[in-house]
Amino acid sequence: MLTNYIKIAWKVLLRHPFYTFITLFGISLTLTVLMVLTSFIDHLVGSHYPEYKRERCLYLMQVRLEDSAKTSASQSDMSYSFIKRHLLPLKTPEKVAVVSQWAWSNAYVGNKRIKVKSKFSDATFWEVSDFTFLEGKPYNNQHINNADPVAVISEAFRTDYFGLDVDAVGKTIEVDNAFYRVIGVVKSVPVTRIFTSAEVYLPYTLPKSNYRKGEYFGGFNAIILARNQSDFPAIKEEYAASIRRIKFPFQEGPWLKAFYIESEPLPYLDMFNRQLLVGGDSRVFYTIIGLVMLLFMLIPAINLVNLNVGRSMERASEIGVRKAFGAPVGTLLGQFVIENIFITAIGGLIALGLSTTILLLINQSGLILHSDLTINLTVLAISVLICLVFGILSGVIPAWRMAKLPISQALKA
Amino acid sequence: MISLNNIEKVYRTSSIETLALANINLHIKAGEFVSIMGPSGCGKSTLLNLMGLLDEPSRGTVEVGGQVVTQYRDKELARLRNQNIGFIFQSFHLINDLSVLDNVEIPLLYRKGDSTGPSRRKLAEEALERVGLSNRMKHFPNQLSGGQKQRVAIARAIVGRPSIILADEPTGNLDSAMGNEIMNILQGLNTDGATIVMVTHDETMAKKTHRLVRLFDGSMVGDSILMSNA
Q: Which of A8, A11, A325 to mutate to test the interface with B (most CBs of B within 10 A)?
């Protein structure tokens, strides 16, 4: 039966090439935009290089201190001292890594200035992430303890600084008037991965990191690697217990006398949602994205509905015959929806080709630095789902109208 | 086999009511070959549609195989049509996008149970052999003559081995030679046991059937036995 439907759908497509072109153009364009969007979201929130363990990680960027009336508050990244007191001693996580937000630095090659992002981290940072080392290795606890002036640099920076495919390990770089010995080169990280993206990685114990500064506020974040996701509540509770032991009030900076602290490590997406959607979690995020996608699909879908409804009388005779020979309304409805899904699937395949090309162009253009946008399995699965939703959305109404056509009327048409 | 009891059919639009059939009482026995004649617009096709469960009467009841089907739902009517009735239309109503074989298979697609792809194909081939078109199976309808198209339509009507065949002017679009050929096939099907009701304008064709029902302005004005089907 399915073959029969597909044959008809294919013939219907071939019957009017211009109409087919318009239909497929609309479907492909819509699905291309949605596939590129899906790929971009996946790029932002999925577990990708070098954050393959993101699903098992909790992130803590900032703490918030409030006054006695909770009317005045101050919020900032954490000091190393705070992390050392309340996060590094945690027993439940597998590992806790410390890493600073990136800072802009200047590197010089001869007279040429290269603007680079630098990050300070501990040695555990290399363990909670999965960097690809093209040369050398990461700094270890010995380097950290000795505050060795060593650096791990990105592939892109190596090219800028030393030239294409020139080995860098053992050589010296000058960044912000300080000299570092390169001990490792990693594959560059997309700029959108804020916890791991930088061109120069340095031990946090170097003086320029200011790691001794601040009791609560400073320039560091923490990545907490759990053994598995089910440990998240226990980790949060252990951390909460730790910060409950803080003795209030205390003075933080010249303006705030702190009476309360708000701080909770969260999964990657929840952490951003907490700030962007004022307390929203991942479900809110995905619901909003889903609604936006649905709305985006709705306009071309309605357009396609109009075209299909307008053409439905072309197939009146077929509908009449099928019904006369025993096709119930439900079966006919199914046939027309399947036909529409088939057409959408063709549009989807075209869109897949277009999306792949567009993503490749975005990656090559440097629009998003070092981006690795791709159609992976997740994106593909979501794209198939999108095609299915679009096919059903644009197919059901015309199918319903066609299937409900009275037989005698259909045969007369 | 089919009974129409006190049937009335009214077509309504927002401003006009048209009485298409009034006070029709007609009983078709199993194995009969009945022709229905009358001038254009007298309600012949409407009557055939009611017998074929393609339309609902405004009043009265329709019985098929002893069951009153007037209150049946779409799904039940569809099943009843699929298992018991085959249709032949004046304008063939073949699906041009499908091959002859695929067209003939259509009624079997909606048959529940043991209707698999190969078995459907075999039955469709047999039906096409029966109407002498086994050499045109892969052709498409627009590659066939009018007579061939009607033979495909007959093959489609008989592929599911229905007990009733309803033919709406099956020879209306054909020349007399082709018409006779189609009529011979229908007579052969009737000899094999099918009950056939045929709407026609052609007196010669009607005379080849067992019984002639005449309609005029939506009413039955004649019902005569032409030859015994015993």
A: A325
How many other CB atoms are there within 10 angstroms of residue B131's CB atom?
Answer: 24
Q: Is the peptide bond before A300 cis (omega within 30 degrees of 0)?
A: no
Best mutation target among A11, A20, A319, A321 (most B Cβ atoms within 10 Å) is A321
Per-residue pLDDT of chain A (413 residues; tens, 9 = 90+): 777 778 778 877 887 888 888 888 888 998 899 899 999 999 998 999 999 999 999 999 999 999 888 888 888 999 999 999 999 999 999 999 999 998 999 998 878 889 999 999 999 999 999 999 999 999 999 999 999 999 999 999 999 999 998 999 999 999 998 999 999 999 999 999 999 999 999 999 998 999 999 889 999 999 999 999 999 999 999 999 999 999 988 888 777 888 999 999 999 988 888 777 656 677 888 888 888 888 888 888 888 888 777 777 788 888 899 999 999 888 888 888 888 888 888 999 999 999 999 999 999 998 888 888 988 888 888 888 888 888 888 888 888 887 888 888 888 86
Contacts of B49 in chain A (CB under 8 A): 407-408
Residue B142 to residue B205: CA distance in whole angstroms: 27
**Would you call B93 and A7 a contact, using CB atoms and an 8 Å cutoff?**
no
Instruction: Give the number of C-alpha atoms closer than 13 A to the C-alpha of residue A126, restricted to the C-beta side.
Output: 21
Handedness of CA B50, B53, B58, B64 (dihedral sign): positive
Give the integer Cα–Cα distance in Å for A392 and B99.
28
| Contacting residues of B for A407, CB less than 8 Å apart | 49, 54-55
Q: How far apart are CA A311 and CA A308, in angstroms?
A: 5
Alpha helices in A46-148 (DSSP H): 80-86, 125-128, 141-146
Best interface-test mutation with A: which of B54, B105, B156 has the largest number of A CBs within 10 A? B54
Considering only the beta carbons, identify the residue of A7, A318, A326 that sits closest to B79: A326
Closest residue in B to A314 (Cα) is B95
CA dihedral B167, B168, B173, B174 (to 10 degrees): 30
- Measured in angstroms, the CA of A54 and the nearest CA of chain B are apart by 50
Q: What is the CATH number of domain B2-225?
A: 3.40.50.300
Phi then psi for residue A68, to 5 deg, are: -65, -35
Contacts with B99 (C-beta within 8 Å, 6 or more apart), sequence order: B137, B138, B139, B140
Q: Rounded to an integer, what distance in angstroms lies between the CA atom of residue B67 and that of residue B169?
A: 27
Residue A289 to residue A281: CA distance in whole angstroms: 13
State the smallest CA–CA distance between residue A325 and chain B in angstroms: 5
Residue B9 tokens read as 């059919």
Q: What is the ipTM of this complex?
A: 0.92
Q: What is the pLDDT of residues B45-60, one digit of tens each?
A: 999 999 999 999 999 9
Check A325 against B110: CB less than 8 A apart.
Answer: yes
Residues of chain B in contact with residue A326, where contact means CB-CB under 8 angstroms, are 78-79, 81-83, 107, 110-111, 160
Q: What is the pLDDT of residues B99-122, one digit of tens each?
A: 999 999 999 988 876 567 888 899
